User: What shape does this take?
Amino acid sequence: VVALDGTADPWGTRAVRASSGLVFRTPIHCVRGRAIGEVIDALPRPLLAAEMAGDDPSGHSGAQWSLVVGNEGGGVREEVLRRCEAKVGVPMPGGTESLNVAVAGAILLYALSPLHPDRTSG
Assistant: This one.
């Protein structure tokens, strides 16, 4: 997990509690602004950006990728968005305006997962 400056503190009491302890088993890196380019360059897989008007994520399922989610008001930072291979989104029927970033991220992770029922036998 890479958290940019301005992100909620991953070690804050509420974040630790909400992670159900996963924060203690997951590498977390807090990065300031411009250093994100170095982090992205070091990634062994392409980036996918969560965007409201993004494409159907199923075209990327099963592949190796890293998912970038932005804040609810501004989305993914422009300098990060430019480095992403693709933009993926959750279809929003019925005039729904947007989703909470945690909800959208969870849905996208599920849709991109090789364990998704549409991609498993049985």
